[in-house]
Design a protein that fits this description.
By secondary structure, this protein is α/β, with parallel strands linked by helices. The protein contains 19 helices and 14 strands. The structure holds adenosine-5'-diphosphate (ADP). Adenosine-5'-diphosphate binds next to helix 12 and helix 14.
Length: 608
């Protein structure tokens, strides 16, 4: 008894000293740490409970209820400690370095519920099974079915600890693994000793010892701080590497079409044959288109990251949109022996309400990938619609007989910057952004995207998006009469500090037979308007030195008789720019490179 008391007193002293040191340091707040806090408190309770048991058993005839209470509580304490330790081992098995996915979170919840249930069930055995007591003047202990049940629970827990450590060897790491393994060994030895010598009171002492040693090996705030710093450094390193890789791949992606533009332009300068010139001009256009898609991809990703990607629903003709996209993708096959099959269901509604530009982008992305990653065989593009009330569930499918994607990569497909089979795909252009953007867009439209692939055989991508049906009959295909000649008398001013931009804009306007005048600064424009000169439309660049387009517009608006529409014509095309320019007082917005359709829309709107 004396030995039992003195060991407990020593344990108390150790635990107190360690706790003072532990609580006096700054700690990191994570679930592992919180659990260790509880473990310390519970261990203190254990010392108190075991002391009361040693005291109560010899006088159990005088205070039978108190004795029963003390001993049962002590058994419950041991059980609680074992459960806390189990939870601790499970928590440190989760990889801190990775973000915890929703699936893991759900699993953690399930395990927690299971543990609570198991604790209640095990506690019941300790509360209700018979418990007997022994005191022979030297040794005090309890025995019987309740203690046997406790031993069984502990044995099961030891098996779970070992299994969990073994399965999660990598995530736990050897620094934690070795002390934990020693602890488990300690608990097992303790159990064996207790089985053969029930009078040796070692359980609480061992638990105190483990708690104290854990402080020095795993839970010391200093050790934890260093570990957290290491994790943070690893994360920063990874982000930095991703950025470097992205920049180098961007440099390659941007230089490739630029090389084509530059090379063909030089060839055109030396070429006299008009047909060859036209062919080369087409190649330049294709390369520019490619460059524009890369830049738009980067802008979309920046919008996604700033949570600014928006869905704008308007009325559109689905068949027309899908036919257009199909044609565009088909034209990208080039010389490859790849057949392009299109199946657009005839029963698609005439009009739907939705963001057709984004639907087009999603479809084109999947089709372009199929075309890019297929060397021979076919690309099958199909669109169907399942109608319910006024909703058309669009099912867009793209199937190819291309190189396919390895099983382990299918899950990573929609992560940004992910490109697979780099050795094989070295000649295929791509940024690894397309599918990340596609997925985000589909999600924004409350749709779903799924991918399935067999490496070496082909892939299949399916997108399902609900669109509202617009009850309107298709208008007869009226021959669209070209409006170009209508603008013959219009007088347009273009203001831009860049000479090439001025040239491109005036050349594009030439085909509408308008009169154009160019100026390279806002000052010049203000002077001209001040002198009383009138234009029908002004296309104004914004980013100009000394005086920006916005500042120029402000000055122009000060003239009482100034009522010319001014359209912002700018390469500043990041999220929210259109809205910004409109709020600054511009009448409209066109982004560079100038899309002819956009230009035509603006001319029709302001010159008719
Ligand atoms: P990328 O610009 O590289 O094509 P994506 O995000 O569109 O970027 O695609 C990511 C990666 O997924 C590609 O680099 C490619 O390895 C793989 N991939 C996408 N679509 C297909 C496909 N149809 N067949 C084979 N691999 C594909």
């Amino acid at each position: 008894m004396i030995i039992g008391y003195s060991m407990l007193v020593m344990s108390f002293v150790y635990l107190t000293v360690m706790s003072i040191s532990y609580y006096s340091k700054k700690r990191i707040k994570n679930s592992e740490n919180k659990l260790y806090n509880i473990l310390i408190i519970v261990t203190f309770m254990g010392i108190f409970l075991e002391t009361s048991c040693i005291y109560m058993v010899p006088i159990r005839d005088i205070h039978p209820v108190l004795n029963e209470l003390a001993n049962r509580s002590y058994l419950l304490y041991i059980l609680a400690w074992v459960f806390l330790f189990t939870k601790y081992i499970l928590i440190i098995s989760i990889d801190n370095k990775k973000k915890i996915s929703i699936k893991i979170k759900e699993n953690i919840k399930k395990v927690n519920n299971l543990m609570i249930f198991a604790f209640v069930a095990c506690s019941a055995t300790l509360i209700f099974l018979p418990l007997y007591y022994h005191y022979d003047g030297v040794y005090t202990y309890s025995y019987g079915p309740a203690t046997t049940a406790l031993f069984i629970h502990i044995a099961i827990a030891i098996a779970i600890w070992l299994l969990s450590l073994f399965i999660n060897l990598k995530t736990v790491g050897y620094k934690k693994y070795i002390p934990l393994f020693v602890f488990i060994l300690g608990v097992t030895l303790n159990m064996i000793i207790r089985l053969y010598n029930p009078g040796v009171l070692l359980i609480t002492v061992t638990q105190v010892l483990i708690t104290v040693v854990m402080y020095f090996t795993i839970e010391n705030p200093d050790v934890q701080m260093i570990e957290q710093l290491n994790i943070a450094r690893d994360r920063a390193d990874r982000a930095n590497n991703a950025k470097t890789e992205f920049l180098s791949s961007m440099s390659h992606e941007i230089r490739t079409p630029l090389n084509a533009i530059d090379g063909f332009s030089q060839l055109i300068l030396e070429e006299d044959n008009i047909d060859t010139i036209k062919e080369e001009a087409k190649d330049i256009m294709a390369a520019s288109q490619n460059l524009l898609e890369i830049v738009n991809g980067i802008l979309d990703i920046s919008k996604i990251e700033a949570d600014k990607l928006e869905i704008v629903n308007v009325e559109y003709e689905p068949t027309k949109i899908f036919e257009e996209v199909g044609k565009l993708a088909k034209s990208r096959i080039g010389e490859k022996p790849v057949e392009f099959k299109t199946h657009i269901a005839e029963d698609l509604p005439d009009y739907l309400n939705g963001d057709y530009t984004r639907i087009k982008q999603i479809t084109l992305n999947l089709l372009t990938n199929a075309v890019k990653y297929t060397k021979n065989g076919y690309v099958d593009f199909s669109v169907r619609c399942v109608t319910q009330d006024d909703i058309c569930r669009l099912i867009i499918m793209v199937k190819d007989t291309g190189i396919g994607i390895k099983k382990e990569n299918v899950d990573k497909l929609f992560e940004k910057f992910e490109r697979f089979d780099k050795e094989q795909n070295i000649t295929i252009e791509g940024t690894g952004l397309g599918l990340a953007i596609t997925k985000k867009l589909v999600n924004l439209m409350n749709g779903r995207i799924i991918a399935d692939s067999r490496y070496g055989t082909g892939s299949i991508f399916a997108v399902v998006i609900d669109q509202r049906i617009v009850n309107k009959k298709k208008e007869e295909n009226v021959e669209v009469v070209s409006n170009k000649s209508i603008f013959t008398n219009a007088n347009i001013l273009i203001v831009d500090d860049n000479k090439i931009n001025l040239k491109v804009a005036s050349r594009l306007l030439e085909s509408y037979k308008v009169k154009t005048e160019t100026m390279d600064s806002g000052f010049e424009c203000i002077e001209k308007i001040k002198s009383g000169y009138k234009y029908d439309l002004i296309l104004m660049d914004d980013m100009m030195p000394k005086m920006s387009g916005t500042e120029t517009l402000k000055e122009l608006k000060k003239f009482s008789n100034f009522n010319t529409p001014v359209v912002a014509l700018t390469a500043n095309a990041i999220a929210g720019m259109k809205e910004k320019y409109l709020s600054e007082g511009f009448d409209d917005y066109i982004s560079k490179p100038i899309d002819k359709k956009e230009l035509e829309r603006v001319l029709n709107k302001y010159l008719n």
